[in-house]
Design brief:
By secondary structure, the chain is of the alpha+beta class. It folds into two domains: 2-151, Ribosomal Protein S5, domain 2, CATH 3.30.230; 155-276, GHMP kinase, C-terminal domain (Alpha-Beta Plaits, 2-Layer Sandwich), CATH 3.30.70.890. The chain contains ten helices and twelve strands. The strands form two sheets. Strands 1, 2, 3, 4, 5, 6, 7 and 12 form an eight-stranded mixed sheet that branches. The chain has a four-stranded antiparallel sheet with strand order 9-10-8-11. Strand 6 (139-143) and strand 7 form a beta hairpin. Helix 3 (86-101) crosses helix 4, helix 4 (108-123) runs antiparallel to helix 5 (129-136) and helix 6 (168-181) crosses helix 7. The chain is globular. (R)-mevalonate (MEV) is lined by residues 11, 15-16, 18-19, 85, 123, 126-127, 129-130, 168, 172, 251-252.
Length: 296
C-alpha cells in the first residue's frame, strides 16, 4: 500500500479570468487529500468508507495503470464544492499514489496532464490553475501553459465557508454567457485581472498586504459584475467590515469559500496558512523544490 497527499488551494486573485487567458495568483493551503493505492482485482475508490463512482479518476490514470486494477482509499480534509480545489487535489493525489505504486518517476508534467484529464471531466474547460497550485505548492502566478513561482513568506488567511455548495462547471458556463453578451467589457476585465494578478504577486512578495487586500476588494467587485457572487457571500463580506483589509470569493463562486486578510493585530480563530515555497514540493516528495519558470 502506498499513500500520497496533495494540498487544497486558494485563488488569491484572478479566478474565471484565468480561464480566458489572464494570469491568476494562487496558493496551496495546509489542508490535504490523501489517497492510498493498492493492487486490486477491480478498479474501486472508497471515500468515507463508501464505494464511490470515480470513472473520471480511473480514466485519467489509465496510461499509468496499463490494464492493471487499483483500489484507491481517500481521506480528505478539504470540503467538496467549496472552492478549495478538492477535485484537483483528489486527481493529483491519486496520480501520485499510482505513480509510486508502479514506480513511475513523479514527473510534474505527467502528473499535471493526468490530473487535467480528470479535471476536464469535472469542469469542462479548466484553466489548470487548481492542479498547478496543488502540484507546485506555495504561491504561483499561473496562466494557461505557464507557471511562475512567487517567493513570499507564508501568510495567514481567514477562510469563511458560506456552506453554499455548487458546481464549478455551471459557474464557468455562466461567465461564458456574460462574455458572449458583453465581449468588450469582459475583455477589459480580463486585461485588468491579468495586471492585478501580476501586481498582486509583487505585493505578496514584498509583504505589502494592504496593497494585496485592495486588489482583492476590486477583484470581488469584478466577480460580482460577472455574476458569480451571491447575496450570502456579500452578507458575509459586509459582516467582516472593520476586521479585515480585504475579502473576496475564492474559486468559482456561486457560494463556496471567501478569503480575507485580517487587519493587523486581529488573529482569526479559524484560518488556513497559505504556504510559500516548499509545501507542495515537499508533499510530492520531489527531492528538490521546483523553482523558476516552468512551461507546463
Ligand atoms: C476554479 O477553482 C477556478 C476557475 O477559474 C476555473 C478554472 O480556472 O479552471 C473558476
Amino acid at each position: 500500500m502506498i499513500s500520497a497527499s496533495a494540498p487544497a488551494k486558494v485563488i488569491v486573485l484572478g479566478e474565471h479570468f484565468v480561464v480566458h487567458g489572464a494570469r491568476a495568483l494562487a496558493a496551496s493551503i495546509d489542508r490535504y487529500i490523501t489517497v492510498t493505492a493498492s493492487l486490486s482485482a477491480r478498479d474501486e475508490l472508497f471515500a468515507y468508507g463508501r464505494l464511490v463512482r470515480a470513472e473520471h479518476i480511473f480514466n485519467s490514470i489509465d496510461r499509468m495503470v496499463r490494464g492493471r486494477h487499483v483500489k484507491l482509499v481517500v481521506r480528505s480534509q478539504i470540503p467538496n464544492g467549496a472552492g478549495l480545489g478538492s477535485s484537483a487535489a483528489l486527481s493529483l493525489a491519486s496520480a501520485i499514489a499510482v505513480s509510486k505504486l508502479f514506480n513511475i518517476a513523479p514527473d510534474p508534467s505527467l502528473l499535471f496532464e493526468v490530473s487535467m484529464e480528470a479535471e476536464k471531466h469535472v469542469h469542462g474547460n479548466p484553466s489548470g490553475v487548481d492542479v498547478a497550485a496543488s502540484l507546485y505548492g506555495g504561491f504561483v502566478l499561473f496562466k494557461r501553459g505557464e507557471l511562475v513561482r512567487v517567493n513570499a513568506p507564508p501568510i495567514r488567511l481567514l477562510v469563511v465557508d458560506s456552506k453554499q455548495r455548487r458546481k464549478t462547471g455551471n459557474l464557468v458556463n455562466r461567465v461564458k454567457k456574460f462574455m458572449d453578451q458583453e465581449p468588450e467589457l469582459f475583455n477589459s476585465l480580463v486585461v485588468s485581472a491579468d495586471l492585478m494578478a501580476k501586481e498582486g504577486a509583487a505585493a505578496i512578495s514584498e509583504g505589502n498586504l494592504e496593497q494585496l487586500a485592495s486588489f482583492m476588494n476590486v477583484s470581488q467587485s469584478f466577480l460580482e459584475l460577472i455574476g458569480v457572487s451571491t447575496p450570502k457571500i456579500e452578507a458575509i463580506i459586509r459582516g467582516l467590515k472593520g476586521k479585515v483589509l480585504g475579502a473576496k470569493i475564492t474559486g468559482a463562486g456561486g457560494g463556496g469559500c471567501i478569503i480575507a486578510i485580517p487587519m493587523p493585530g486581529i488573529v482569526p480563530k479559524t484560518g488556513y496558512t497559505v504556504n510559500a515555497g516548499v509545501a507542495g514540493a515537499y508533499q510530492l516528495n520531489y527531492g528538490n523544490p521546483i523553482s523558476g519558470h516552468l512551461n507546463l
